[in-house]
Amino acid sequence: MISVVKFGGSSVASSEQFKKVKNIVLADEKRSIVVVSALGKRFKQDNKITDLLYLLSAHKRYGVDISAMVNMIEERYEEIKNDLSLHVDVKKEFEIIAENIKKGASEEYIVSRGEFLCAKLMADYLGYEFVDSAEVVVFNYDGTLNEEVTAERIKSKFEEYKKLVIPGFYGAYPTGEIKLFSRGGSDVTGSIVAMAVSAERYENWTDVSGILMADPRIVDNPERVEEVTYDELRELSYMGASVLHEETVMPVRELNIPIYILNTNSPNDEGTKICKESDKNGNLVTGIAGRKNFAVFTITKVVSADKLSVIRDVLSTFKKFNVKLEHIHTSVDCFTVVCALSDVDRIVYDVIAEIKKVAGVVSVDFDDDLALVAVVGRNMALQPGVSGRIFSIFGKNNINIKTISQGTKEINIMVGVSNQDFEKSIRAIYKEVASK
Ligand code: ASP
Fold first, then answer.
1. Domains, the chain, with CATH or none
2. Which atom of ligand 1 is nearest to the CA of 185?
3. Whole-prediction pTM value?
4. 92-96, 246-250, 254-258, 314-318: the lowest-pLDDT one
């Protein structure tokens, strides 16, 4: 039985945090593979090493002197090394990095060093083997992950060493050139590693005790979610709940490996379990998330126009402008397309002109004031009256609903409101559906 344990930036931000990590890892001998982020913030105004590395790379690009910034980063690692009396030659590592930067190393290489060095120190501290992700996480030339080769390599390292520390966030092309995942991608590394070794569980250690039912910046003290299914989590994180990287679920879902969100600073808290199916009853609503600033195009066709052709032509226009669509609604003569405002705000008039040209439609109306609120819950499926109950909350609170949609799995009801009603909507729903 193997547990893969991933520690986020705040969990490895200082030597004090390293000590907590060691206690957690050694408390359960199943915790055989440790994945780490780069050093995060130690206090609110502090810097994340990854941010500093991006900045360093930009400085280099514009010819600004980088030595002060390199020193600042190096000090963070030196401090941990000294506090914990580790053996890693941090100075030498930074000389190598400086040399590579001088030779023109890529931004991805520079940024990946945050995780690389953290994993080196952590391996030293735990007495585990350091395995460089550049050797085991393999990308194809089109930027997709080569899942098969990656799984084989991780598995063989695990069989060889049994106890490993692997840096998160990056891998390499077959040429050895470093490639990063998107921001927050160490979560994905943990998931890929868990899949590769068919882990019994994937523990994701962070600085909160699990997933909350709603954003605590909007709702005061929201309840913790005990269990959430992969499907629910996908919906919630897509709609803005920011606990895990959006792509974390995919690798583990096939093997049904549960993910646990746990708190390094309070390791006995229960946290949240993420799994395929939950036998916990839970609330009617598992979580509420949402995002502001969407745009709506409403296309009205000429009476004689063939509806399918209009839809096809309108969609091809969005494709041409490379705009990602969030929702599509159709009615007798109208067809509505919802997308992120930031994707279209500079090209609205071009998009409208093109739609009129290719689809030959009568009018295109544009509304730039839409927020989407997602109410997500497995217990909502196959239950008559649920959507009525949710919508009545908006009515009772005098909030106008602009759009409504529900997927056929019935675990997500999406309601579109004006941006100014966004927070009010979330608070109103929470008040009605949280267990009292
Ligand atoms: N350190 C990277 C970031 O800040 C990756 C991660 O922590 O997951 O995005």
1. 3-199 (3.40.1160.10), 287-434 (3.30.2130.10)
2. 8
3. 0.87
4. 246-250
